[in-house]
User: What shape does this take?
Amino acid sequence: MACAAYAHAIIKNAGGRGFVYNSMKRSGWYENTVFYEIYVPSFCDGDGDGTGDLKGVISRIPYLRQLGISGIWLTPFYPSPRVDNGYDIRDYRNVDPAFGTLADFDMLLRKAHQAGIRVIIDMVLNHTSDLHPWFQESRRSAHSPYRDYYLWEKEIPCNWESFFDGSAWEYDDTAGMYYYHAFSRNQVCLNWSSPQVRRECADILRFWLDRGVDGFRLDVINFLKTDRGAFHADNPVENGVTRHVYDKNQKGIYEAIREISRVVHAYPGKYLLGEIGEDDLCLIKSYVGDGLLDSAFQFNLGSMEKLDAAFMADQMRRMEAEGVYPTLFFSSHDMRRHFNRLCGKDRTKAELLAVFLLTAKGIPFLYQGEEIPMEDVPVESLRDLKDIQGRYGYDKKLAEGESEEAAFLYARERSRDYSRGMVEWEREGDRDSLARAYRKLLDIRKRHLSLSMGEYGEIRQQDGLLYYQRIWEKEKIGVYLCFDGHSPELPHTDVLYEVMDGNGRTRGIMRYEQEIG
Ligand code: GLC
Assistant: This one.
């Protein structure tokens, strides 16, 4: 029985159907914000130990400000054994010594705010590290007040698999029972039917809100286990692949998210962004709106497998038809970098995508280093395979009797190490760097509200050329992007931005089209 690897599943699921909603109401500051994802372990090394840390982030705030982004999403920086690079939290109210201290965090927040940059932090409420004191207490005794914090069963109740690979049930010698984990066995799922767990999580959110964060990115939030009864249904298996049906979107999930939303929105102006691991538009939509999430990540455009103007136009139209205000990104720490995946390392294509990201309708999320542009780091040997999802796959294949080579090839496909290399800041000033293009585009976006606030006018595509208009009050801006290498005749009047390829041919134009009225 096989289970599609996690990121892989998201990418496949994309199949053109994942949207994210921001309800029809557009009122929050976040809708005009350009976010920049900082994967803390590999963003910037501030203390010379070779890995990223909060001091490193602080040192780059002037750069980020100059770049022109207005929000940061910080991936987990909490104390953690880092089995899944921090998405396995051991202490929710502190900073991992490898990344700094709480004082560094406060300083980061202060400096970012002074620079006009808001900060949202990743919050993992679906699971804790197995080294979290709650779990250590929970496994020790059936009478522990913490026993009920996790999901213990005497026998394996169903066929559920981990999103990383292999069974989701792990036997614990100390407890003499099985516990449930949706990801690695070191990321133990919390029991969201427990009022005590909910109270603890609310307190954790308040702890960071009181410190002044501007919001949260809630990790895999529709996976919360809110219904113990669901354990009695097996997930369907089709062609050897498990479909995750009963282990997410459980009964009680909306109430849990409402509770989280009440806690967060009791603080005015805070932003609640959720990662919804889904490909069904209606389902994703249902998590966003008053009293729920402010927006949710969508993977339809971000995870497309090749640059395709027709596909992009189709997605844009569908989002329009559905009234979707999407999040826009092409790279993240869970997927391969789009410079490799979509652009084939072609700088012109990367620049065209930057134009799209910063002029199409939605909330852009840049991934660290895409503006340099950073490339995927190769995973050539077992030594390079650090990601837990890859390592799980490797062990699983060996256990199934595959050769080391076959196991490695399988694991390499699943590994998310590619996009997690240290950002090569020394390349920032290179002739080929895209940073100048991003800066200029961000500046244009700031000066022309139609690019952030505007509705779409026409959306068209033909022969690899994508064209769309953004309209706000009296302003109309037209964007022409030619992804497939030919250079059609494009209008060259009132040009705000032009993308030229290495042969001096125009491949993209953003132009001021007319004043209305
Ligand atoms: C999210 C994170 C991913 C992590 C997983 C489990 O999808 O983006 O990196 O492995 O949740 O916490």
Remarks:
- Residues 1-26 have pLDDT under 50 and may be disordered.
